[in-house]
Amino acid sequence: LACHASKGLTARTSIIFGPPGHAYVYLIYGMYDMFNVVAERTGVPHAVLVRAVEFLGEEPGKPRGNGPGRLTRALGITRAHNGASLLLPPITIHDGQAPAVIDVSARVGVAYAGRWADEPLRYFDAASPFVSRPSPRQLGSGRR
């Protein structure tokens, strides 16, 4: 219920229904572009919201990637990239070192999603200072 695909296949959601390895970018709150990676075979709606990135050599005062809106602004990702392949520039995903500890929580800002609100579907690098740290009231149903 917290996924655009919960409404079924529409012109807007067609990207989420595949093929995998493509960007799904949408506007939220009328001001933030959200970058998602389509991650399931064609016909199965599944996309992963990228909530943070850690820039190599990141320093204070430089563009930050801790939060989905900051991430897209810092990387120049806009709705013009919706449907773009992530196998070719301008946006590509590369292998990297896996985090030592991956933590799991409910998703951020999905209190409206009924029984799905508290599902542990947010995965993040527990040691990274670049991961956003939402308050418990922003996670899942907010009833913590």
Explained architecture:
This protein is mostly beta strands and 144 residues long. A 3-stranded antiparallel sheet has the order 1-2-3. The longest helix has 8 residues, at 68-75. It is 6% helix and 17% strand.
* Spatial shape: globular
Query: Helical proportion?
Result: under 10%
- Would you count the extended β strands for me? 5
Strand arrangement, major sheet: 1-2-3
Strand content: 15-25%
List low-confidence stretches: none
What's the helix count? 1
| Distance from first to last alpha carbon | 20 Å
- What is the N-to-C succession of helices and strands? EEEHEE
Structural class: mainly beta
Radius of gyration: 15 Å
User: Would you tell me the overall average pLDDT?
Assistant: 87
Tell me the major beta sheet: 3 strands, antiparallel
Keyword list:
144 residues; 6% helix; two-stranded antiparallel sheet; globular; mainly beta; 5 strands; 1 helix
Topology:
Blueprint (H helix, E strand, L loop, with lengths): L22 E6 L3 E7 L8 E3 L18 H8 L26 E4 L16 E4 L19
How is this structure best summarized?
The chain is mainly beta and 144 residues long. Helices cover 6% and strands 17% of the residues.
